[in-house]
Amino acid sequence: HLNIGIIDISNCSLKIDDDLVKAFKESHLLKLKNDQLKVLLWVGGADEATGFSEMVSNHTNRKRFIQSLKETLLKYALDGVGE
């Protein structure tokens, strides 16, 4: 398993910057060499990242975050979320 992050949350969505995109692309190259590799997002928690408290504050915000998470996983062919 390879965890990439800590990924911040902004406006109830994942904050993906150029460095993360580069890491996602490089991890894809590693997966081509090892099909057993699982690449996971590492999302910051309440004491690790900004935006977490806002995201968990209500159902609408959590739903927006989940949609952002799903889109990111699909767009960059990632395997899930780590701890």
Order of helices and strands: EEEHEHHE
Low-confidence stretches: none
* Sheet/helix structural class: alpha/beta
Overall radius of gyration? 13 Å
Q: State the end-to-end distance.
A: 11 Å
Query: pLDDT average, as an integer?
Result: 91
Q: In this structure, how is the largest beta sheet organized?
A: 3 strands, parallel
Q: How many β-strands, per DSSP?
A: 5
β-strand amount: 15-25%
What gross morphology would you assign? elongated
Strand order of the largest sheet: 1-4-5
Account of the protein in words:
It is a single chain. This protein has 3 helices and 5 strands, in the order E-E-E-H-E-H-H-E. By secondary structure, it is α/β, with parallel strands linked by helices. The strands form 2 sheets. It has a 3-stranded parallel beta sheet with strand order 1-4-5, with helices on one face. A two-stranded antiparallel sheet has the order 2-3. A hairpin with a 2-residue loop joins strand 2 and strand 3. The chain is elongated, with a radius of gyration of 13 Å. The N and C termini lie close together (11 Å).
